[in-house]
Specification:
Length: 104
């Protein structure tokens, strides 16, 4: 059975790159060797694989990848550090303009 991997790379500039692949070894090779010179990671090497999660369904993998790409750096670092329980707290809006700060 084919598996799909959502992965996060930490770049030399301390940014994160999130991707999805059906062959993690091939994809890491492509990133590390700048096979696509226009890829985000090409000018940000060296790279470190800091997270990967495997899926059997490509739709689940793509959905999770899109979700993670929209996350804040703190939320990405929570899953990188295997602190999944922190995600809920990190999702709470703390802006002064948040609806939770208005009284009726």
């Amino acid at each position: 059975m084919k598996t799909y991997t959502v992965y996060i790379l930490k770049c030399a500039d301390n940014s994160y790159y999130t991707g999805v692949t059906n062959d993690i070894d091939r994809r890491l090779y492509e990133h590390e060797n700048a096979i696509n010179v226009n890829c985000y990671t090409a000018e940000r090497r060296p790279l470190a694989l800091v997270f990967c999660e495997h899926f059997e369904d490509i739709n689940d993998a793509i959905s999770f990848e899109k979700q993670v790409k929209g996350w804040s750096r703190k939320k990405k670092e929570a899953i990188i550090n295997d602190n999944w329980d922190k995600l809920k707290a990190l999702s709470i809006c703390k802006n002064i303009t948040s609806h939770t700060n208005f009284t009726k």
